[in-house]
């Protein structure tokens, strides 16, 4: 971020949620550092990463939080959601259960996060098309019912990752300004 620090107009907190192993950490590191790491869970991750982007002439610092594995123990606390303006709700297009659980994650957000939170539903691992079990149509339908934005990504190839984050940040910017 170098010398852009003092020019930042907004800091937006975004949380990344969803079942274990859907690719939350990899999506975040793809967006923040343009990296994909094949053995990501060997160290305990940092709690959040930041990336500064310009949207409609405003310099926005996205502060993006990762659960760092806590979702395994259902230990995602309300502190995690506090102040979050956006959520990336990730499932794995090759794991039906991770999509079936999306409804629980939406309930969790409705219970613990700000009611104005902008939610992007993300079907990750789009590079594994031959193993797909969740159709795009089902996900679009669910997203429309629930008032969520929707995108399919691949943290591995990088496909759509930046677009999904930018769309989320744009919508947050629209809500706050
Ligand atoms: P998390 O538990 O949700 O944070 O998931 P991780 O980011 O640790 O990823 C879980 C596993 O899925 C790891 O083995 C990753 O290498 C793999 N993975 C993550 N994203 C992708 C992707 O887009 N495509 C493929 N093929 N594998 C992925």
UniProtKB/TrEMBL annotation:
Molecular function GO terms recorded: GTP binding; GTPase activity
Family: Belongs to the small GTPase superfamily. Rab family.
Protein name: Ras-related protein RABA3
Portion of the parent chain present: 23 to 199 of 246
């Amino acid at each position: 971020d170098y010398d852009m620090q003092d020019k930042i107009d907004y800091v937006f907190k975004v949380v990344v949620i969803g079942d274990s192993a859907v690719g939350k950490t990899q999506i975040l590191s793809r967006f923040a550092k343009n990296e994909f790491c094949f053995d990501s869970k060997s160290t305990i991750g940092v709690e959040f990463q930041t990336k500064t982007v310009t949207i409609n002439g405003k310099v926005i610092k996205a502060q993006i939080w990762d659960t760092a594995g806590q979702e395994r123990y259902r230990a995602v606390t309300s502190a995690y959601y506090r102040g979050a303006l956006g959520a990336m709700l990730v499932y794995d297009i090759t794991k039906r259960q991770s999509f079936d659980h999306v409804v629980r994650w939406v309930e969790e957000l409705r219970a613990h996060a700000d009611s104005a939170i902008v939610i992007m539903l993300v079907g990750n691992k789009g590079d594994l098309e031959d193993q797909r079990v969740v159709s795009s149509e089902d996900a679009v339908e669910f997203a429309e019912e629930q008032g969520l934005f929707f995108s399919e990504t691949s943290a591995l190839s990088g496909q759509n990752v930046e677009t999904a984050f930018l769309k989320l940040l744009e919508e947050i910017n629209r809500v706050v300004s």
